[in-house]
Amino acid sequence: MRFLAIATVLAAARIAAAGPGDPDDATEASAEFQRGRDLAKLGRYTEACAAFGKSYELDPALGTAVNLADCLERQGQLYRAWELFDLVARSSPNVQSRARLARSRADALAARLATVVVKLRDPAVRGLAIRIGDRAATPAPEIRDLVEPRDIEVVATVPGRRAFRTTLHATAGATVTVDVPALPAPDEPGEPRRRRSFVYLAGGLGAAGAVGLGASLVVGLGARSDYRAALARECLPASTVDDAGYRLCRARVDRAGARADHATELAVAGAVLGAAAAAVFLAAPREALQLTPVATGRELGLGIAGRF
Q1: How far apart are CA 36 and CA 187, in angstroms?
Q2: Cα separation, 212 vs 236, whole angstroms
Q3: The pLDDT of residue 222 is above 60
Q4: Running DSSP on this structure, what letter comes out for residue 129?
Q5: β-pair partners for 178
Q6: Helices 45-58 and 23-41: crossing angle, nearest 10°?
Q7: How do residues 69-78 score in pLDDT, each as one tens digit?
Q8: What is the dihedral of CA 241, 244, 246, 249, to 10 degrees?
Q9: Which of 130, 178, 214, 259 has its Cβ near the most Cβ atoms within 10 Å?
C-alpha cells in the first residue's frame, strides 16, 4: 500500500519535473514508468527496479526517483535508495509533501547505513585521488560518506607514490574514522646500482674464497695434531734407535708436513679468490637505467631513473 501511495502521489510530480527533451524518450520513459508500477504491484521488484531505472535514465523526473528509491530499498540497495530520496528532498522546495516524504525516507535509511570519516593530512597534493569502497570522493581535509554496512576499503593514491590502503569494518548506525597520512614523495634517483651479473660473480668468488680459507684452517689444525701425536708416540728417543722406529717417526712427520703444505695452498687460494671477488665487485659496471614499477588506482606503468 505504501508503494502504491507513493506512485499515485508522485505521478503528477513526475510529469511536472520532466524537462524539454526528445518526445520519443519522454514517451518511452512514461511507458517504462507505468511498467514499473505494474510490476511492483505484482511484487516483481527486480524487474520493477529495472523498469524504473530505465525510465529515470531517459527522463530523470523526481517522481520516478522516489519510486526507484523505494524499489531499490526493497532490494537491499540501501545507499542508492538513500541517495535518491535525499536528492528528491533537496530538489523539492516547492512541493512540501514530496520533500517531507523523501526526507523521512532518507533519514530512516541513514540510520541503517554506516558513516565513514576520512581525514587527509595533505588534501591539496597534486593528483590525489580518494576512493571509499567502489566510489570516488573529492579530496578535502575531512570527508564524510555513508556506506552500506560491510568491510570498506579506503584507498588514497598519488601518481608516482606508494598508495595508502586500509580496510574498515562499517556497522549500521556507527561511525568509523581513518587518518590518511601524507603520501611519501618518491626517492630521488641515487647512485646507479652495479650490474647484477658482476655482483653475483663477485659473490660466488667470495664464497669460494671463504670455503678455501675455512678448509685451510681445518687441514692446518689436523696437520698440527698429527705432528704433536708423532712427537708423543712414534718419535720418542727409544723408538728411533732402530730403523723401524725411525721410519715410522719419519712417515708420521712427513704426513703432517704434507697436510700443512695443503693447508697453506688452500689459504693462498682462498686469499686469491677473496681478492678477485673484491676486484670484480669494485670494477663492476653500473646499470645505466633503473626501472621502478608505478601502480595507482587508475594507472600502471614503470618509472625510469638513471644517468644519461
Answers
A1: 57
A2: 35
A3: yes
A4: E
A5: 118
A6: 160
A7: 999 999 999 9
A8: -130
A9: 130
